[in-house]
Write a structure and sequence with these properties.
Strand order of the largest sheet: 1-11-2-3-10-9-8
Number of strands: 11
Distance between the termini: 67 Å
Shape: elongated
Structural class: alpha/beta
Order of helices and strands: HHEEHEHEEEEEEEHHEHHHHHHHH
Radius of gyration: 44 Å
Helix content: 40-55%
């Protein structure tokens, strides 16, 4: 007999294939986004920025992290670090940061990668994209690698002479370059195809523009020349002092949060953000598959037989009684009931079933104030059983009465 493919089977197969495809797409998306260096404040991985923070602290700078909306720039801020390409905040805060630079601040800025998911969506604002657009920066990102290996470093070719290259002759960064088409640009390091590191003067302040954040990561700062070059960029304009703080900008909010319209987003909003969105969808698909597999019967239903007997305890007792009666062995019932009475009586009195009938009867009379002769007669039912069913039923009732009196 050939098995037919049921609609339930087809649905389960479709859901399983959809889950596998969604998982593959989310994995591919994650692998495409994660390798970009972000140089974050507390990230100790090779592409993190904890080493940069410790380096500044070792030089004597107070180092802090900004991850919440700002009404105004901190009074002690002298250097602002904007390396994480996922940093987002309001347009008012973006203008606030640029005005701060014009008034004499120093900004370390890594150009956002062109292929990353950082386009403006609704109320979310990306300051890196705005700076890239205002400065008319054309970036060529050559950061292509997988998790199996770290990105290769390319030697930095010194540009204009100055204090930035003091004791840093063999510095290296990524292969990415950028072309800055607006503003007064001083190329600190560059190649034939473009600029790798430059200083852009803006009002009284300056912006150090890097093609990406790789130069500022733990991986690149492991080279002494790279660490020297990065510290020269800061110390050339801001000397270490308790009032000269360096801030890592890692804010991630939009217009409504910055303007005070909503203090915090709900947990559902964050669960729906990539890549958590794909994980939630996979969990929902898995739950649906579980319900389909265990909550429903797969295949055509099999009806239960209508006339099969149902065995109950009363049916069993009646059947056994009828069997003993037909077998002409009513004395067996009396023996069984008598032995059971003896065991229960001895257990209730705290004695052994092997004690004599006289001892058990005397003890029962003492405990429950029962006639010893009455108990003794009941104990002898198993030894001299009667064949009269009515008499046997009467004796069983008397046994039950004795057990009840002993249990009081």
């Amino acid at each position: 007999m050939k098995s037919r493919l049921q609609p339930t089977h087809i649905l389960v197969i479709v859901l399983l294939v959809a889950t596998l495809v969604l998982g593959a797409l989310s994995q591919k998306r994650e692998q495409a986004e994660l390798p970009w260096p972000r140089a974050q404040f507390s990230d100790s991985t090779p592409l993190g920025g904890k080493g940069l923070r410790l380096l500044f602290e070792w030089l004597g700078y107070p180092v802090r992290r900004v991850d919440r909306p700002l009404q105004k720039m901190p009074a002690d801020a002298r250097v602002w670090v904007l390396l994480d390409y996922r940093t987002t905040f309001s347009r008012a805060e973006s203008r606030q940061l640029q005005d701060w630079v014009k008034n004499g601040g120093t900004l370390l800025f890594a150009v956002p990668p062109s292929g990353a998911d950082i386009t403006e969506l609704g109320e979310v604002h990306h300051p890196g994209l705005e700076l890239k657009k205002q400065l008319d920066i054309e970036s060529i990102n050559n950061l292509k690698w997988t998790w199996e290996a770290l990105p290769p470093l390319a030697p930095l070719t010194p540009g204009a002479p100055g204090n930035y290259w003091s004791d840093a002759k063999a510095a290296s960064a990524s292969h990415s370059t950028a072309n800055i088409k607006k503003g007064r640009v001083l190329e600190i390091a560059g190649a034939v195809k473009g600029t790798q590191l430059a200083r852009l003067d803006l009002g009284k302040g300056r912006i150090f523009v890097a093609a990406d954040a790789l130069l500022f990561t733990n991986y690149a700062l492991d080279s002494p020349d790279n660490a020297t070059l990065v510290t020269n960029l800061v110390r050339a304009h801001v000397q270490p002092s308790p009032n000269a703080a360096i801030y890592f900008d890692e804010r991630h909010h939009g217009e409504s949060v910055a303007d005070g319209d909503a203090e915090k987003r709900s947990w559902a909003y964050y669960l729906w953000q990539p890549p958590l969105r794909f994980a939630v969808l996979q969990v929902l698909f898995a739950a649906l598959l579980t319900w389909m597999l265990f909550g429903r019967r797969l295949g055509a239903p099999v009806p239960l037989p209508d006339n099969d007997p149902v065995t109950r305890a009363s049916h069993f007792a009646q059947a056994m009684g009828a069997l003993l009666h037909k077998g002409k062995r009513p004395r067996v019932i009396a023996e069984i009931l008598g032995d059971e009475f003896r065991r229960n009586l001895a257990g209730r009195l705290g004695m052994s079933p092997h004690d004599s009938d006289e001892v058990l009867a005397a003890r029962a009379a003492q405990v429950a104030n029962l006639p010893a002769e009455h108990v003794l007669r009941l104990l002898r039912v198993a030894k001299s059983p009667t064949e009269n069913e009515d008499a046997l039923l009467n004796e069983v009732q008397q046994m039950e009465s004795v057990m009840r009196k002993l249990s009081r």
